Amino acid sequence: QEFPELNYEHVVSKSPIGRRLFTDFCNESEELKCCNKFLNDVRILETERDLVDDNYEKLAPEESRLALAQKIYSQCLCEEAESKLPDHLIDQDKVKIVEDKTSGGKSPVYLF
User: Is this model's pTM higher than 0.70 or not?
Assistant: First the structure.
């Protein structure tokens, strides 16, 4: 019998139980908790759906994406962020791109 690949995409993104276990695991560590929040917020931004607690409410397109992208930047990526992602996990060149695009008033679906 073949087993599916054991990677983030298969275990967490495509499996509700896998996602729940991953979330519980990440919530045990402050560093991982902020990473998990970042990944969840980016997933919401990219899919235009709020996947938290099985709430599948559709987000309003452009203005909600922009507001969420700005929130993600200010909470997780900028130097003053309260829940800043660990520096060893951040590509500063990409952070600059996010900063430029969100300050310009646009948030493409695949910004992060």
Answer: no
pLDDT in tens, 53-86: 555 555 556 677 788 888 888 888 888 888 888 8
**How many CA atoms, within 13 angstroms, populate the side-chain half-sphere of residue 66?**
10
> Residue 86: which of 95, 77, 94 has the closest Cα?
77
DSSP states along 14-59: S-HHHHHHHHHHHTTSHHHHHHHHHHHHHHHHHHTB--GGG--PBP
Query: What one-character-per-residue DSSP string does 51-83 give?
Result: -GGG--PBPPHHHHHHHHHHHHIIIIISTT-TT
